[in-house]
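user: can you give me the structure for this one chain? tokens are fine.
assistant: on it. calling the predictor now.
[tool input]
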Amino acid sequence: MLSWLVSFQLKSRFRKYARIPMNYSLSGCEVAEKMLRDNGIKDVRILSVKGELTDHITQPKAQDALRWAAYTYVVAAIGSLATLLYYIMIYMGRRN
């Protein structure tokens, strides 16, 4: 229920502000790219699509992104475990 309300409000505000002309010659895609570049984010690709505001992601791409995120967390956990074991070995005096 709450997600429906938020979605409804977001869409109604998008419709409201979509009717207001911009004073700039930039498209929404160009503005998004500039915002990302200005904040040092260079590995995100923006696609210009017609229609309403969307994240425009397909199911296989979403699954691939989630898979790589899971791998990242696994690698980070293994690194943390290795660091913990290293400090335990130092504490116990068994590091050569």
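assistant: here you go. Residues 57-96 form one domain. The chain has two domains: 24-55, 57-96.
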